Amino acid sequence: MIKKTLVILLSIILLLIIALGVFIGLNYHADGDLAELKEKYSLENSKFINIKNMPVHYTIDGTGEKTLVLLHGTGSSLHTWNSWLEEFKDYYRVIRLDLPGFGLTGPNPKGRYDRIFYSIFLETFVDKLNLGKFHLAGNSFGGYVAWNYALNHPAKVDKLILLDASGYPREDVPTPLGFRLAKDETIGSYMEKITPRYLVEKTVCDAYEDDSMASKEIVDRYFDLLLREGNRKALMLKMQHIKYDNWDKIKLIQNPTLIMWGNKDAVVPPSHAYKFHKDIKDSEFIMYDDIGHLPMEEIPERSAKDVLEFLDTNMAVK
User: Fold this and answer.
1) Closest Cα partner for 40 from 54, 53, 57?
2) Cα separation of 227 and 218, whole Å?
3) What digits encode the pLDDT tens for the residues 182-231?
4) What H or E segment, with its residue span, contains residue 70?
5) CA nearest to 182, candidates 224, 231, 115, 116
6) Cα–Cα distance between 164 and 76 in angstroms, integer?
7) What is the SS3 assignment for 118?
8) CA 306/CA 286 separation, integer angstroms
9) For residue 3, what are the CA distances in angstroms to 6, 12, 316?
10) Is there a contact between 262 and 295 (Cβ–Cβ < 8 Å)?
11) Taking the CA of residue 290 as centre, how many other CA atoms within 13 Å lie in the half-sphere pointing to its CB?
């Protein structure tokens, strides 16, 4: 009886080992070739500038007198603003960039990803491009970087636009699975090489109210850029370093601010939109029905029109 039980137990262990081996074999991904990624995801006017030993990827479009800087969210890249660019380039000089740890920019060599690092980085980027005063917009984590920068450099920011921005503790609202796994130090370390594509696809789909918007092309881009050397570890470290523990400073923001949110956002709770609106004095607020985490992608024309009217109330936009 004991021998039979031992055989069954060993058989189960063997099956588990085989299943684990199959899982690893199917989901192990080496770092992507940077040259190939640049060829595939650089845009016609892509530029690279060295900041703190990082080849920061950015673009400049439009010839307007005023400048609008756009910051993407976690795991994303400057490509998330493609549709908005078409709406803004006739009115503003539009600057997009891949934040450290993401896109073609890649990781911070010093492995630091807290709010102070990102604020210092953005100030260095702004100085190197001699931007002067500019409008600043950010989505999700990019919104977090944006409002923290505005707090530290209020004279540099003309107007601030926050799209489904992070900043408040999540409390009992669950973090999306992909980000939750990356935040775990043990699991996150394995995810530096073992990266299930379906997990990336689910995370991307969760950002849209309509899953069909997460096309194969978009999911491929998220997945490919995640595999850029250093980006997977950067994601893990960013999830560990960002604490969202300075939310009480949001009420100190003095810049004219527009808060935009999708009422079906499954990434950052819509309840946080009302917190931003309450804490930022005289802020303007728009809640979009049946829209998820990415208004600039889901309703680009409508959301861009709202921003244009906020930036220049005298501008006639049809």
Assistant:
1) 57
2) 14
3) 566 666 566 677 788 988 999 999 999 999 999 999 999 999 999 999 99
4) strand 67-71
5) 231
6) 14
7) helix
8) 9
9) 5, 14, 84
10) yes
11) 1
Question: If residue 159 lies in a helix (H) or strand (E), which one and from where to where?
Answer: strand 157-163
Taking residue 82's Cβ as centre, other Cβ atoms within 10 Å add up to 13
Q: Using the Cα atoms of residue 264, residue 270, residue 271 and residue 274 in order, give the sign of their dihedral.
A: negative
Render pLDDT for 71-110 as a digit per residue (tens, 0 to 9): 999 999 999 999 999 999 999 999 999 999 999 999 999 9
pTM of the model: 0.89
Q: Which residues contact 173 (CB under 8 A, 6 or more apart)?
A: 269
Residue 34: is it exposed, middle or buried by C-beta count within 10 angstroms (0-12/13-18/19+)? middle
Count Cα neighbours of 270 within 13 Å in the Cβ-side half-sphere.
16
Helices (H), the chain: 2-27, 34-41, 82-88, 115-128, 141-152, 177-183, 185-190, 197-207, 216-226, 231-241, 271-279, 295-298, 300-311
- Six token digits for residue 122: 């953005």
Rg from Cα positions in the chain: 21
